[in-house]
């Protein structure tokens, strides 16, 4: 186990040259920003957050750094607008709409920074936005996490979650945020202790690192009920009314539990590597089982990132429900590209028989119309029903459903839906 984790650490760690290059780009960007703030006489300070501030960066295809501008209270309500003006003249940035607008700036083809305006607060209760707490998160982690061993184990946890698609609090992932993983590894003391404990969880778990509450009952009374629905309630040490794992869904948690159990049963370096969906293998398996395979792409005109991802996931779930009314789905998948498109695949076969619900038998006119369309009908509890055999193929069903539900598709923010194969 130790040799495997050591090998993983070597694979996920950035080279000294790459890390130095990224940090240099951050330093240059921050220097320019400070000069702009001074020139415009704006009372604000800059700090670097996220993995770069806590030294927990892992190797990825692309990198991002969180850079915060902490504005004095007098600028409240204008901070996104002021930040936008600081970037005027740059061509390589995008405005990202959210609970508070922020900006994405490309510094290289594989590196961008997110420039996030926040308000300088004295106590967490003054926070008007979750990002206002980011400064205290950095301070807390850097104060508590000192040893290289814990930092390495945080990297392992991030890589493991990333590989198993459980990393990120975005609504289309609903997994573990970086900050939550840092807290959990610090709490459990190591990556292995963390995953060994995770697989044993069967009931809602409450973790209060700083013991801000006397007992679980007090937490349930004090905290907003919407923050208590996740499988783990992780009290934010910097703000006790916040659950740092509020975004974690039961689906993501169960997927993570299975990944942990599989790794402990059969440890391997591959458990930390992103597994690409082998569509060719899935297609061959479908053919062998005499099932149909369909690959579908959906596009949205919504803002890329969390908004687009959540819309495309919601539509995928809806389409899955519609298909499952007429087909037995044996395999399916969702892959969001981080931009404005997602791909879905379904492997299914027609149901042998479906039950079609008709009108109330007192509705004579519609009953007659139903009987003309459905021959094998019967009545039960005052309503007419029919048993039908599904004779349409999966792809033709999707095409027909698409044409019939064009308005609904548009209402769900999907601008284009096409069957690729």
How would you portray this structure in words?
The chain is an alpha+beta fold and 421 residues long. Helix content is 41%, strand content 22%. The protein has a five-stranded mixed sheet. Strand 12 (377-380) and strand 13 (383-388) form a beta hairpin. It is globular, with a radius of gyration of 26 Å. The model has no long low-confidence stretch (mean pLDDT 91).
User: Tell me about the biggest sheet?
Assistant: 5 strands, mixed
Assembly form of the protein: single chain
C-alpha end-to-end distance = 42 Å
| Number of H- or I-type helical stretches | 15
Q: Shape, please?
A: globular
The SSE order reads: HHEHEHEEEHHHHEHEHHEHEEEHEEHHE
Radius of gyration: 26 Å
Strand content: 15-25%
Task: Tell me roughly what share of residues is in helical segments.
Answer: 40-55%
Determine the mean pLDDT: 91
**Structural class, from helix and strand content?**
alpha+beta
Strand order of the largest sheet: 1-2-5-4-3
Report the count of strand segments.
14
Query: Low-confidence spans: pLDDT under 50, at least 5 residues?
Result: none
